[in-house]
Specification:
Largest sheet: none
Shape: globular
Order of helices and strands: HHH
Structural class: mainly alpha
Oligomer: single chain
Strand content: under 5%
Number of helices: 3
Length: 84
Amino acid sequence: MTEFPNTLLIEGEPKDLSEELAQFIDGIKKTETVYPEVSRLCEANKLDDVLKVLITNASALNSAPEKGTFTVAIATNLPHLGFA
């Protein structure tokens, strides 16, 4: 079987993922500044600006607690990856 060390598969709409990441960053920073701005920009369909805001605030992720080693994969009917 093929191993995927430190692999995390995330699916979803860019708007939803951006807003969720913004909420997570706000939680780490103990503020409520990133999510409202990201939400507003998502509604205006300005995804480039959303990315700028998330990247500007991404340094907060360095202080997030680690949850250990990630090995996440959806292993149903993926024979080309070694899963039956």
